């Protein structure tokens, strides 16, 4: 390992920052095999390989580490020279600057794509540059699975430190609750492991604390025997003379709240509701159905399977990779996206008023013919929070939640950059409307799912004062000079928020 980091250098906050050109020249000199400079075909390919065009920027150079040792060397140089940088795993966060940077150094993790299965089949090891689709496919022949992302092109790295929704949520908890070990490169360039026995404070902080402590290069996830599951997409009409928009929404709402309330009695079944309003005027609801025990048409999902106005039902026995692929089709690459997230208790009146409120936001838009508007209801049954404790806890702040909850998630897309400001305003109106409804009914929760959050939201504060203070202590311990606070500006940073 190169010994380039000089503590005095890092401590000198007043030191003039070097130019991006100087930083890239140093990286090219020391690490030429993983350096990609501008004005090359590979550079152009990497900077345009984005899920959301809103995250497209122009770094001074791109580094493509293939090992933790590579990452260590990169971080040493960046730290010593005080170079600003960004890190991209799957790049599925549309917020500008969160996984990319103008003029700084972009670290693309796609070379960290290793996979391995423990001899006793108890866990898998995944490089953080993998997509979840590739990770699932890698172990399909072994008939093994693990908790991971719902969409195939989401990256392992970001999800594994942001919380992590999965199809196994009720029965196994958040993705972070299934991480056995993190391999992490610290600001000093040191490669450490974080688990229940070693660096246990860092281990807990990473489980929801995101990019505040180091760069995770590999995760070990608890694994289990698994072949296929049952699931698919049930598409319902919301527009047209026969659809009965309000009645259909009310029927779906009743079925959703009842399902979540009883989810503890069938941990294998799951749903996600996605209302989609397309620019051509079509309005549909997509009910994503799943049963991880591979039981077709389970009793818990019968109220959804009997819903009227069905257009298409793709439910079948399929692999985890196949279902992750199908889910990704609803939010394809190549658009401009905004996202936001609000959490409320599982309550029928709240959910009905929420649909009315966000319909009002959408109907008030003057650009409906140029955008697609997707609003999801993601169940968070209380039982899923009980899985954290057995592996050292997490920092999400949900361990004492006594009621079932719902994450209300906006994803909107468009093509024309001139609409960016309009859609950012619409996102804020969505947040305000959802929060207002929750407060009106006394069901609002301060928890904000970080991986779905708007850049103007403060998900780290939503974890609670105790967890926020804990994360700040851990960050100071493992990154005493604030490298990941100052030099990696993207993402939700502990140093940039003041919690009320």
Automatic annotation (TrEMBL):
Q: Which Pfam families does the protein's record reference?
A: FAD_binding_4 (PF01565)
User: GO terms for molecular function, please?
Assistant: FAD binding; oxidoreductase activity
> Where would I find the FAD-binding PCMH-type domain in this sequence?
55-226
Q: Which key words tag this protein in UniProt? A: FAD, Flavoprotein, Oxidoreductase, Signal
**Signal sequence interval, chain numbering:** 1-16
Protein family membership: Belongs to the oxygen-dependent FAD-linked oxidoreductase family.
Q: What is this protein called?
A: 6-hydroxy-D-nicotine oxidase
Organism field: Beauveria bassiana D1-5
């Amino acid at each position: 390992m190169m010994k380039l980091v000089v503590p005095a250098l890092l401590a000198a906050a007043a030191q003039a920052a070097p130019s991006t050109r100087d930083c890239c020249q140093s990286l090219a000199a020391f690490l030429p095999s993983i350096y990609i400079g501008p004005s090359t075909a590979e550079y152009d390919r990497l900077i345009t390989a984005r899920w959301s065009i809103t995250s497209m920027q122009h770094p001074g150079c791109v580094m493509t580490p293939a090992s933790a040792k590579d990452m260590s060397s990169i971080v040493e140089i960046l730290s010593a020279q005080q170079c600003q940088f960004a890190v991209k795993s799957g790049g599925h966060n549309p917020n500008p600057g969160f996984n990319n940077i103008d003029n700084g150094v972009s670290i693309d993790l796609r070379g960290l794509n290793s996979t391995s299965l423990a001899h006793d089949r108890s866990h898998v090891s995944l490089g953080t540059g993998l997509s979840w689709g590739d990770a699932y496919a890698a172990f399909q022949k072994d008939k093994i699975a693990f908790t991971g992302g719902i969409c195939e092109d989401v990256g392992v790295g970001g999800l594994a430190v942001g919380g992590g929704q999965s199809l196994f949520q009720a029965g196994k908890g958040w993705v972070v609750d299934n991480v056995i070990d993190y391999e992490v490169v610290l600001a000093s360039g040191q490669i450490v492991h974080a688990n229940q026995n070693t660096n246990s404070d860092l281990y807990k902080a990473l489980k929801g604390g995101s990019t505040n402590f180091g760069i995770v290069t590999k995760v070990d996830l608890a694994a289990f025997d698994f072949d296929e599951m049952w699931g698919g997409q049930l598409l319902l009409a919301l527009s047209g003379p026969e659809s009965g928009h309000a009645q259909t929404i009310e029927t779906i709402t009743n079925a959703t709240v009842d399902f979540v309330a009883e989810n503890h009695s069938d941990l294998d079944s799951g749903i996600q509701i996605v209302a989609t309003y397309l620019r051509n005027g079509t309005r549909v609801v997509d009910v994503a159905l799943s049963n991880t025990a591979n039981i077709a048409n389970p009793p818990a999902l019968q109220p959804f399977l009997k819903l009227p106005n069905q257009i298409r039902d793709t439910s079948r026995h399929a692999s985890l990779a196949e279902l992750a692929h199908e889910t990704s089709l609803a939010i394809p690459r190549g658009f401009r996206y905004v996202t936001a997230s609000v959490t409320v208790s599982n309550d029928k009146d709240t959910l009905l008023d929420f649909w009315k409120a966000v319909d009002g936001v959408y109907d008030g838009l003057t650009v409906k013919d140029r955008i697609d508007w997707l609003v999801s209801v993601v169940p968070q049954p209380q039982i899923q929070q009980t899985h954290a404790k057995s592996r050292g806890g997490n920092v999400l702040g949900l361990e004492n939640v006594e009621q079932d909850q719902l994450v209300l998630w906006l994803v909107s897309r468009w093509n024309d950059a001139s609409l960016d400001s309009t859609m950012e305003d619409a996102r804020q109106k969505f947040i305000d409307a959802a929060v207002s409804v929750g407060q009106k009914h006394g069901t609002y929760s301060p928890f904000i799912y970080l991986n779905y959050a708007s850049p103007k939201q403060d998900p780290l504060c939503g974890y609670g004062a105790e967890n926020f203070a804990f994360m700040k202590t851990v960050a100071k311990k493992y990154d005493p000079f604030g490298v990941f606070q100052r030099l990696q500006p993207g993402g939700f940073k502990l140093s940039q928020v003041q919690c009320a």
